[in-house]
Specification:
Blueprint (H helix, E strand, L loop, with lengths): L1 H7 L4 H4 L1 H14 L5 H7 L12 H13 L17 H29 L3 E2 L2 E2 L1 H5 L1 H20 L4 H22 L3 H4 L2 H26 L4 H28 L2 H4 L5 H4 L5 H9 L3 H7 L4 H10 L1
Antiparallel strand pairs: 1-2
Helix pairs in contact: 3-6, 4-8, 5-6, 5-11, 6-8, 6-9, 6-11, 9-11, 11-12, 16-17
This protein binds geranylgeranyl diphosphate (GRG).
Subcellular location: Mitochondrion
Family: Belongs to the FPP/GGPP synthase family.
GO molecular function: metal ion binding; prenyltransferase activity
């Protein structure tokens, strides 16, 4: 009877790591303190209570750590869950913090590149403090992430997460420089999406497995899991750009298409309606092109 009522309760993954997420929030606030007041207020902007975002990446990483850590009983009295290596968990929490700092740095730079007005339901940092401070705050967060990464003293993990930054920059550049042929290619979309969204999640999942002392085989499985999850996350994000509201998105809807970005729903619609190729080739360069595309979705 207990089991059937438990099965009906929807499982909230965030609640499983709620305590650790609140520790992470406090640690991040302490880690992003800067010496110069203007930089300090810019760097802490998206770490303040209420504007921390969904914390999707740290949640996934903490759950993955729970799944992969081997409980090491120190004595018979510890039972199966006793003696969990505390230091190991702290190092994995550090990966969750580094991942979130890299993510927020990328959001700050992205909003400058897109000239975005809003993010997480408030004014984007560039709209409140200007482009220059937003870029510097993003650089500052990356530096703090590097210092935290170095403290782990694991060259493979350093290399994984440093490469992610290159991937973020590569994905963004691919998006900015798309030719009309690339714009209608699903292969190009998936490669760009791996770089922009999935690489951070997959490589940080792999880092969690490596720190847990898992085999190379398991760390590849952790990577694959993160890659697929990251791609799925971006596909849902693409759909929400069409179906969400300003309140649910924390920013205006239809922002991708208005920036001429071809996302998954458009690519799928193009397969069914070849007429869409023409507006996609033009890069949705007029508001009427946006309306034409919306009619087919
Ligand atoms: C400086 C690291 C760095 C990168 C520069 C601008 C850029 C290169 C990359 C942009 C990468 C980017 C913004 C990808 C989009 C990923 C994505 C799905 C963002 C939204 O994630 P959510 O919904 O956001 O998890 P919250 O606000 O909940 O954290």
């Amino acid at each position: 009877q207990d089991r059937s009522s438990a099965a009906e309760e929807p499982l909230d993954p965030f609640s499983l790591v709620a305590d650790e997420l609140s520790i992470l929030a406090n640690r991040l606030r302490a880690m992003v303190v800067a010496e110069v007041p203007k930089l300090a207020s810019a760097a802490e902007y998206f770490f303040k209570m209420g504007v921390e975002g969904k914390r999707f990446r740290p949640t996934v990483l903490l759950l993955m750590a729970s799944a992969l850590n081997m409980p090491i009983p120190q004595s018979a009295a510890d039972g199966v869950f006793g003696g969990l290596p505390k230091e190991l968990r702290t190092r994995q929490q550090c990966i969750a913090e580094i991942t979130e700092m890299i993510h927020v740095a990328s959001l700050l730079h992205d909003d400058v590149l897109d000239d975005a007005d809003t993010r997480r339901g408030i004014g984007s940092l560039n709209s409140v403090m200007g482009n220059k401070l937003s870029v510097l705050a993003g650089d500052f967060l990356l530096s703090r992430a590097c210092v935290a990464l170095a403290s782990l003293k694991n060259t493979e993990v350093v290399s994984l997460l440093a490469t992610v930054v290159e991937h973020l920059v590569t994905g963004e550049t691919m998006q900015m420089t798309t030719t009309s042929e690339q714009r209608s290619s699903m292969e190009y979309y998936l490669q760009k999406t791996y770089y922009k969204t999935a690489s951070l999640i997959s490589n940080s999942c792999k880092a969690i497995a490596l720190l847990a002392g898992q085999t190379a085989e398991v760390s590849v499985l952790a990577y694959d899991y993160g890659r697929n999850l990251g791609l799925a996350y971006q596909l849902i994000d693409d759909v929400l750009d069409f179906t969400g509201t300003s309140a649910s998105l924390g920013k205006g809807s239809l922002s991708d298409i208005r920036h001429g970005i071809v996302t998954a729903p458009i690519l799928f619609a193009m397969e069914e309606f070849p007429q869409l190729h023409e507006v996609v080739d033009r890069g949705f360069d007029s508001p009427s092109d946006v309306d034409i595309a919306l009619d087919y979705l």
